[in-house]
Design brief:
Four copies of one chain form a homotetramer.
Chain A lengths: L2 E4 L5 H11 L4 E4 L10 H10 L2 E7 L14 H21 L1 E11 L12 H22 L4 E7 L5 H6 L3 H6 L9 H13 L8 E5 L9
Parallel strand pairs in A: 1-2, 1-3, 3-4, 4-5, 5-6
Helix pairs in contact in A: 1-7, 2-3, 3-4
Chain lengths: 215, 215, 215, 215
């Protein structure tokens, strides 16, 4: 039976991915913050004691609250360095991804078009995207596909926290709406279900035509 | 019944996409070079006389033979300007994509990492990718998704023409193999089948972790 | 004596570069549209009959008037294909750049962040940037540096044509002002004057921190 | 008198920049590791007690030894997180850059084309490039220019440590040679000397046409 671990699997995009993988009758561990808190390296290590092998891994975590550069404290940097970068590195150093498997990273559109209010997220998610790109070539030898999904504005609790007037904001978007977490869940599912393997080492904007950069 | 037109639909990646859309019981027109030759604007216009509306459009065409810059003639530039750029522009100016539809562009990984032997293709496919990106924001208003797939080394007749020793070449690739056209066909199908709409305005490398650029 | 040819050298950015090179006591040919009109291939060829060798070449030309996609005619595409792309290709195929020389391309920030009103420019300037990148590796063998400068909003007649209310527009810019053509002229001069050669194969945004893309 | 601080100013690229700024008769503080060790936050804070205002700041530091992902320890990540990222953030949070000033970041070509042996550097230098891009818009209000220089293979002690056979390596480079630190020093000097201000928010590859990515 195919096994999957979805970090941050109890809410938002992570939950949507978990649910869509469950619909394939996979053995899905939808990890909540209680199971593994990537901002706490002890929690990460404890989690890895009990989970050391998997077919499908989804690296996903919430982002920090909005904070501009001059208000970010040393403690903030260190906490989110763990949460958005180092925790994921430890996971990939320890967990064995089985042959023919998949690793998905849920990053953010801010890695390409950084956002002053999301400066922590812009920085550390970009950093981990570098690691992920490098590793994709290694994993390729075992036919493991690494796919970085970079969501734009998605209809999650987090977006509602970050955006003051969501209804007004929607009207500024090319599709006039936020993306739904289920669209990302379905996208992940459809790749796995169709055994699409040559899609690897790629960053996929998932933003309803909102970004402006050519690629 | 959902209608689809696949340009360059009789061979290689285009055929694989046509076949996968047919498996969804769509009304698929797999256009061959006889139906529409995008290097010939008269042929394009004639085709558009008979096809002026569609749900799903796949812009796809073969590339020029390998030629280094100093050997490219004025005639070559003009022919492939039509084939890889202007023909597609005329198509998009004339054909109506129905609401909730899809436009796929099959470009190439050379748009991001240009290749001296494929200089014509690098140039004009990049040019059309700019047009496509711009239009994605317009099409978004009608909930039409525009997806640019940039294939790397795929197992097609063309690759066999371009690469001298395919077996040796394969060993240099991260996955140790070429991609199969069917993987792209399945990918396109899975997006449509799952009604994934928020994936738009995006360029998706499809290259088995072969590219080196971070995004 | 060092020789230089500046296409589009009679106005705007081209003139500023010509003037700055003249201040180095170079033999500068500031070509006006009368000397060479890159939209007219016959004019290009005639020019090349009389100019077949140079130390420093600046590829620069005005852009088309603002036009959205659905209003662009076949004639527009073909004219600007010549002006922004093919004319430059012919020049580089024919003219000999001397060892230790420089080729500058003045493109535009729209190659990275395409603009619907400047769709023609976005497309063909990106196409030529691909050619230029490829050639930079060839030219490197003769220690010729190729530098693509991608200006953002610069204080030229053209900007005044394109922007309705320049004073209002300025306030939206990070520096609260347009760039001056002389800044680009000085930049080009300073690179040459200091014999900076390892700067090659690069695209340099010159936009006063206006672009949003990370690179 | 114009003041400048160059971090990592006692060797390699940093020294070359210091020397070139000294040639302009600026008051240059070429900080060595003894003055400020960005991997040690206490050292950073102490430095900032004595340097809280400057006209020109150059953020520069050596990189970590080559190490592949699975050999990087938690201690390595944390050390270089400080050295390549957090130390620089603290500096920018505390030091006042005077109006009309400059901030240069010396990053690396690996931020765009990440390198498995330089995975730590690829990650954290990319992270800081995000921060730097965001801040460039803020600094622009005071007419401070932020320029990210991303060197490729430069003739420094570090390159000799990283590359086994430098002579063999050189032959693989488009220019057949490494870049010289003095070329970067001269480049920085020429920008400042010519008061080029509209060049800001930009990442400039400085790699002798070695990179393959289009931009």
């Amino acid at each position: 039976m195919t096994s999957a671990i979805v970090l941050g699997g109890s809410r938002g995009i992570g939950k949507a991915i978990s649910d869509s993988l469950k619909s394939l009758n996979f053995d899905v561990f939808a990890a909540s913050k209680k199971d593994i808190d990537t901002s706490n390296l002890e929690s990460v290590k404890k989690f890895l004691d009990n989970h050391n092998e998997v077919d499908i891994l989804v690296l996903n975590t919430g982002g920090p609250e909005a904070k501009e550069f001059f208000n970010v404290t040393e403690g903030d940097w260190e906490k989110y360095h763990n949460q958005l970068f180092l925790g994921f590195c430890l996971v990939l150093q320890k967990i064995k991804i089985n042959r023919e498997g998949y690793v998905f990273l849920i990053s953010s559109s801010v890695i390409k078009e950084p956002n002053p209010k999301l400066i922590i997220s812009s920085a550390y998610r970009a950093a981990f995207s570098e690691v992920f790109k490098i590793l994709s070539k290694d994993y390729a030898k075992k036919n493991i596909s690494c796919i970085n999904i970079a969501p734009g504005p998605i209809n999650t609790d987090r977006t509602k926290e970050l955006i003051e007037n969501v209804d007004k904001f929607k009207k500024t978007l090319p599709m006039g709406r936020l993306g739904e977490p289920e669209e990302i869940g379905d996208f992940v599912k459809s790749i796995i279900q169709n055994k699409i393997k040559y899609l690897s080492g790629v960053t996929i904007n998932f933003d309803g035509a909102n970004s402006n950069y050519i690629f």
